[in-house]
Design goal:
With about 220 residues, this protein is mainly β. The protein contains 1 helix and 10 strands.
């Protein structure tokens, strides 16, 4: 499938006057969260890219990446309940007794960013690089961990976990936009700060976001 995609892209770019092509290796890390009030968690990305050069400034880079995303929702106030599921109250004040629920999740994706890049030369073989373009991704797996859920019974009140994409309303398909700015050194190594934000929802009302420092090496 990936080979076919590369062939299709090559046929599309051929009429545009491509000057050169080369492979890149990519790896990086940073933070990720849902754009709905969750806290960030660590994330990472690793993979390869193929860059087509149109001229001294413009290039196009499709990448195939393995990416880890996630989020955390700590200290969510929940009412304490008895074994029958009935709320508990303070015997002196009559106020509901409250506890804390903590949720953390990981989600692993295979991701295909399609980035257009503009190279601004600063010195011999050194450039500031601006990047932007869409991406699509497919969720492969992940785990959500929950502590202190008073709606559960028995030991699950203390802790339980489940597959992230098995949650009600969860979606494996993800798509959005990525932008970045970086610097390419004379030895072919680049460092860039990249931000991505999904247009689609991974959970109802919640979209993936990530901010990462990505390093790449170009085989020229």
């Amino acid at each position: 499938m990936i080979r076919h995609l590369v062939i299709v892209l090559a046929l599309m770019l051929a009429p545009l006057g491509v000057k050169a092509q080369h492979w890149q290796l990519k790896a990086g890390g940073g933070i990720a969260q849902l754009a709905s009030g969750t806290d960030p968690v660590g994330s990472w990305t690793v993979g390869a890219a193929y860059e087509w050069e149109f001229d001294q400034h413009w290039t196009f880079t499709p990448s195939l990446l393995y990416a880890m995303r996630g989020w955390e929702l700590p200290n969510e106030a929940v009412a304490k309940k008895d074994e029958a599921g009935q709320p508990l109250f303070d015997p002196e004040t009559g106020a509901p007794l409250m506890g804390w629920k903590n949720t953390s999740a990981s989600a692993h994706y295979v991701e295909l960013p399609l980035l257009f890049n503009y190279y601004l030369r600063t010195a011999e073989r050194r450039y500031v690089v601006f990047s932007a373009g869409p991406y699509v991704a497919l969720g492969l797996g992940g785990k959500t961990k929950v502590k202190g859920d008073t709606d559960r019974q028995g030991a699950e009140r203390m802790y339980y976990d489940y597959a992230t994409f098995s949650a009600h309303g969860a979606h494996r398909f993800d798509a959005g936009m990525r932008v970045g700015v970086g610097y390419q050194f004379a030895n072919g190594i680049s460092a860039s700060c990249e931000y991505s934000r999904a247009f689609t929802e991974v959970l109802p009302g919640a979209r993936n976001t990530a901010l990462q420092l990505v390093f790449s090496y170009s085989f020229k």
